[in-house]
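wait is this the right file?? whatever heres the structure
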């Protein structure tokens, strides 16, 4: 357990009341971290935090935040420090995709929302937590991207653009922050069975179609991604920075 031991570490995980974010929060707590569960709805945050605390007493709190609000994100950081004293790990998981269709039809409002929520909010949060990590000469920042950032799409182009930008955000910030022993990495999942992607797998036919070209012949589960987050947050990932880990069952191989 030593390589993956997170005892004494404090982690913020955005978008962590369901799906990939929830699995990451649960697994970080399982490995010893204190975790802050965050999404837009306070009740959902409290519910997930309570479930984690039932297994690991005192390991979690819930702090609601809308990632489009810089004030909300600052409050998330402030509440984390008030409860646990510091922030060692930041997982930028929350994202949005309000538009499905060709780029020619996307409204300015939708395009700005996708770029703001999926890129700018991550930039804001990292700016908020990096100074204390620099002071301690230690920290791990993980951005959940997507294999959509590795290829084009006729239906979710703006989302793919934002996820490609997240990979470059990690590369740039690794250059800036890694000399202070702060690791900045991305995880790029393939299609995972979450509510966010439900339209692509909710019927047996859709699931078969979506997994057909996948060498492992199945879609991902949230825990398939959570393990990589534990790795990147822990001593096991101490020499990795500026990278994107692709976890997609072989879809892009």
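ok assuming it is, sequence goes like this
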């Amino acid at each position: 357990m030593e390589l993956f031991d997170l005892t004494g570490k404090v982690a913020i995980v955005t978008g962590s009341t369901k799906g990939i974010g929830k699995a990451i929060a649960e697994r970080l707590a399982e490995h010893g971290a204190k975790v802050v569960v965050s999404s837009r709805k306070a009740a959902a945050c409290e519910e997930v935090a309570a479930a984690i605390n039932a297994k690991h007493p005192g390991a979690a709190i819930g702090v609601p935040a809308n990632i489009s609000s810089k004030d909300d994100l600052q409050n998330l950081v402030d509440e984390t420090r008030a409860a646990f004293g510091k922030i060692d790990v930041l997982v930028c998981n929350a994202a949005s995709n309000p538009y499905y269709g060709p780029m020619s039809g996307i409204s300015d409002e939708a395009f700005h929302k996708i770029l703001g929520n999926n890129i700018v909010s991550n930039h804001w949060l990292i700016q908020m937590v990096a100074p204390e990590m620099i002071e301690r000469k230690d920290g791990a920042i993980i951005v959940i991207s997507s294999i959509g950032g590795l290829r084009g799409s006729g239906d979710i182009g703006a989302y793919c653009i934002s996820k490609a930008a997240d990979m470059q955000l990690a590369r740039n910030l690794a250059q800036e922050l890694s000399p202070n022993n702060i690791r900045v990495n991305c995880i790029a999942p393939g299609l995972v069975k979450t509510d966010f992607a439900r339209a692509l797998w909710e019927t047996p036919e859709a699931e078969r179609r979506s997994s057909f070209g996948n060498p492992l012949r199945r879609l991902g589960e949230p825990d398939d991604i959570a393990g990589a987050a534990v790795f990147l947050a822990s001593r096991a990932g101490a020499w990795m920075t500026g990278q994107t880990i692709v976890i997609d069952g072989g879809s892009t191989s």
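Residues 108-136 form the longest helix (29 residues). so i think its the right one actually
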